[in-house]
Amino acid sequence: MNKEKYYITTAIPYCSAKPHIGNVYEVILADAIARYKRQKGYDVFFLTGTDEHGLKIENAAKEAGLTPQEYTDNICEVLKNIWNMVGASYDKFIRTTDDYHEKAVADIFEKLLLQGDIYKGKYEGWYCIPDESFYTDMQIVDGKCPDCGRPVVRSNEEAYFFKLSKYADRLIRYLDENQDFIQPISRKNEMLNNFIKPGLQDLCVSRTSFTWGVKVPSDPKHVVYVWIDALTNYITALGYNTKNPTELYKKYWPCDLHVIGKDIVRFHTIYWPIILMALEEPLPKTVYGHGWLNSGGDKMSKSKGNVMFADELIKKFGVDGVRYYCLAEMPFSSDGIITSENIIAKYNADLANNLGNLVSRTISMNKKYFDKIIPEAEKVEAEQDIKLKIAFTQTIEIYSEKMDSYRISEAIESIFVALSCANKYIDECSPWILAKDKSRRSRLGTVIYNSLESIRIAAVLLMPFIPESSKKILNLINTKESSLEFGKLKSGELTKENEILFSRIDNLIKM
Ligand code: MSP
Fold first, then answer.
1. Is the separation of the CB atoms in 483 and 354 below 8 Å?
2. Percent of the chain beyond pLDDT 70?
3. DSSP letter (8 states) at residue 397
4. Distance (Å, rounded) from C-alpha 212 to C-alpha 221?
5. What is the pTM of this model?
6. From CA 438, how far away is CA 82, in angstroms rounded?
7. What is the Cα 118 distance to its own chain's centre?
8. Of 196, 269, 284, 507, whose CB neighbour count within 10 A is largest?
9. pLDDT confidence of residue 343
């Protein structure tokens, strides 16, 4: 049977410094969605990579006394290590310095030039060198860059422009007809009202202020604007070229989901669709602009000294501790907060007390009362059994609906509701009391079986978020069964020796 394809991408971070937990959050988020889709049987292609050209990187390399290529080679290695550390299950890693990518970008630029979508003009206005951005007289604020507040310089030079306005009507129509294109919807309204409807200016798509980038083949003193270079990674990674796209490209494009941060929604929902329209290629199905993970209440920045790194957090909380916090704490449409105190509180409440405790007490009781042999459940169900099964059925429904609409933290919350019910079930059924009465042996077996089945289903549901721990749980109950149907765990198999999955971390770690 042919599996349905699912193509998912992250933004490609600038290769200018070690990525912080905010950048890493994005790859964890995309990874959770990719794992979920694989579990559902999709043929997933998960792309990530690095954005390696531009003035900032050229300057950072100079400061480090390295060539830009040496510099990006180093940072890319650091980034890949972190991606691997958090368990990012990507299928391909693209670097914008990869030769096939550079060649395709040069091709794309020439094609658009030849067909008249890109034209050579003159730029007269203000230029912010660090941001590599142009501004009109109206846009600058007190002679400074409206984005970063640094001084701008007068610029009067030849440059290439992309006729964005030619495609504005088509873009508006596309947004109207594809309500799911920009998620969350609030970001769509922002794009329409603030950028598209007031009128799109032609976009300057070349620079002469630096050389570290893809040169325009027919006019090599110009370098292709970094955003054209960066955005096209999503198609060049699949082997797109203007003449003879590969089978991989034909199979996976258009993209099902671009996972990006809120600050770059404009590039992905205005410039990117327009480039694709000009190339006569289909547009991505959905662009999800997630919120930012802020340190305390503040934006993470080197100057504030509040930057947090994934590798350091993993040393303290383990990979699943970090993945869990990021995914469970980030709301669908607004920013999230990360602090060590919050991670500890969430870790203890959810992972150690709720999930960890349920697994540990269930495995221990199965050893104590049944010598590790998974008991059978009686056919007749008590009221508590029915309540437990209803809780899981409801959770599975909510979970699927939330996952399919990328509301990850809400999907996770629904699992923990079911886990709390399972803990309550054990308390109410009190196996330790049943164990004292020989005539209730078969009821005891039912309670233990249902508890083991609860942790099996929870582990399957948690697999996209905390894969290592979920695998350990399934291993403890000695099963690979991934069905979400209650009652699929095989009786008669042996559970393993107990293992603490998450020990409370109150005072263990001095922050
Ligand atoms: N290079 C561009 C993306 C090009 S995509 C064709 C870029 N790089 S970046 O390094 O600045 O950001 C990479 C991603 O990390 C972006 O999606 C950005 O929104 C995201 N984040 C940056 N800081 C973040 C947080 N504090 N929290 C969550 N995501 C964050 O933009």
1. no
2. 99
3. H
4. 11
5. 0.96
6. 54
7. 33
8. 269
9. 96
Distance from the CA of 308 to the center of ligand 1, in angstroms?
Answer: 15
Query: 511: pLDDT confidence band, cut at 50, 70 and 90?
Result: very low
The residue to which tokens 């340190």 are assigned? 295
> 155 is written with which tokens?
């610029």
Nearest Cα neighbor of 463 from 332, 361, 323 is 323
Token pair 């996770």: residue: 412
Q: Let me know how many helices (H) and strands (E) the chain has, helices first.
A: 19, 14
Atom of ligand 1 nearest to the CA of 25: 28
Helices (H), 279-435: 310-329, 340-346, 357-370, 383-404, 408-429, 431-434
Under the banding of pLDDT at 50, 70 and 90, the label for residue 39 is very high
Would you call 275 exposed, middle or buried from its count of C-beta atoms within 10 A (0-12, 13-18, 19+)? buried
Given a cut of 90, whether residue 148 has pLDDT beyond it is no
Strand partners, 9: 47, 258
Average pLDDT in the chain? 95
- Ligand 1 within 6 A of 94 CB? no
Inter-residue contact 453 to 489 (CB < 8 Å): yes
Contact 280, 254 (CB under 8 A): no
Nearest CA to ligand 1 atom 10: 13
Is the distance from the beta carbon of residue 14 to the nearest atom of ligand 1 less than 6 Å?
yes
The pLDDT of residue 130 is above 80: no
Supply the pLDDT for residue 127: 86
Substitution candidate for ligand 1 out of 8, 12, 14, 23 with most atoms within 8 A of CB: 23
> What pLDDT sits at residue 113?
98
More confident residue, 110 or 157: 110
Instruction: Report CA-CA distances (Å) from 329 to 39, 100, 272, 345.
Output: 23, 39, 30, 12
**Domain spans in the chain, listed from the N-terminal domain onward:** 339-476
pLDDT at 256 over 60: yes
The token pair at 198 is: 């007031």
pLDDT per position as a tens digit, 258-311: 999 999 999 999 999 999 999 999 999 999 999 999 998 889 887 888 999 999
Ligand 1 midpoint to CA 14 (Å): 8
What is the signed CA dihedral for 60, 64, 66, 70, rounded to 10 degrees?
Answer: -70
Residue 100 C-beta-side C-alpha neighbours within 13 Å: 13
Closest C-alpha among 388, 502, 495 to residue 451: 388
Nearest C-alpha to atom 6 of ligand 1 is from which residue?
Answer: 231
133-to-106, 145, 230, 301 alpha-carbon distances in Å: 21, 9, 15, 21
CATH class name, domain 339-476: mainly alpha
